Amino acid sequence: MARVAIVTGGSRGIGASISKALQEAGYHVAANYAGNDAAAEAFTSETGIKTYKWSVADYDACAEGVRKVEAELGPVDVLINNAGITRDAMFHKMTPAQWKEVIDTNLSGVFNMTHPVWGGMRDRKFGRIITISSINGQKGQAGQANYSAAKAGDIGLTRALAQEGARAGITVNVIAPGYIGTEMVRAIDERVLAERIIPQIPVGRLGEPEEIARCAVFLASDDAGFITGSTISANGGQYFT
Ligand code: NDP
């Protein structure tokens, strides 16, 4: 039987690549998104992958969303916590609202999605939780205190859950991408990209969303059963932990 995967933020950017790669690998995929209905509709007509709208920042909406996906596709075997936002500001200018929005989505969102699938995975003795953190959660980034804190928190949460899930056949891992050529990054001024960002990346280019998707498909597979609590850095050599 095909395994069922939920990809949060799964209809655009890195998440869309992960949804498509999992579908190609034979999974039944549910792609969650927050509000961009046009992108979600275009994604479904291109791929046939069903999209589900709720905010990962809302625990009750996540629990209800998981129930709906499970009723339609079956028990969730794989959860990809990919949804994420930025609200950048230097710390002295950062508002409590900018802090809270990013923590609520990028860190609490991982709790909100993982908690409703955890019990079922424990009962069935199989599960894969993969969270997309960031190089900036590993090294910290000026102007992103909120984002760096949330993404570092994702790594701590993963390491704790890896220990709790191990005996129940659940692996819990992080992928920490560097700069990936999604809309978000391509929107950066071309000169800034060419003169300031790409020179920091030893391989001399941005990463492709598909390169993150292939890591996710591997971590979701049976072949990755002995890997848990790990962080895979996919950053072109920009930072080593
Ligand atoms: P995009 O901005 O291209 O896409 C973000 C996706 O997340 C969208 O589908 C969006 O939904 C969804 N989303 C945002 N907020 C919520 C929410 N509250 N509930 C549910 N879905 C939500 O982002 P990227 O593809 O660039 O990034 C994906 C992940 O990778 C993020 O976690 C990001 O932090 C991380 N990352 C990205 C890097 C990069 O260089 N791009 C580098 C390192 C990490 P909608 O379509 O409805 O807006």
UniProtKB/TrEMBL annotation:
Documented EC number(s): 1.1.1.36
Q: Which Pfam families match?
A: adh_short_C2 (PF13561)
For whether the record's keyword set contains Oxidoreductase, the answer is yes
Source superkingdom? Bacteria
List, alphabetically, the GO terms of the cellular component aspect: cytoplasm
SMART domains according to UniProt: PKS_KR (SM00822)
EC class (word):
oxidoreductase
Q: Where is the Ketoreductase domain?
A: 3-183
Q: PROSITE patterns, from UniProt?
A: ADH_SHORT
Q: What are the BP-aspect GO terms? A: monocarboxylic acid metabolic process; poly-hydroxybutyrate biosynthetic process
What GO annotations for molecular function exist for this entry? acetoacetyl-CoA reductase activity
Q: Where is the signal peptide?
A: none
Which key words tag this protein in UniProt? Oxidoreductase
Q: What does the sequence similarity comment in the record state about its family?
A: Belongs to the short-chain dehydrogenases/reductases (SDR) family.
Q: What PANTHER family is this protein classified in?
A: 3-OXOACYL-(ACYL-CARRIER-PROTEIN) REDUCTASE, 3-OXOACYL-[ACYL-CARRIER-PROTEIN] REDUCTASE FABG
Q: Which NCBIfam families match?
A: AcAcCoA_reduct, PRK12824.1, PRK12826.1-2
Q: What is this protein called?
A: Acetoacetyl-CoA reductase
- What species is this protein from? Paracoccus suum
- Upper lineage ranks? Bacteria, Pseudomonadati, Pseudomonadota, Alphaproteobacteria, Rhodobacterales
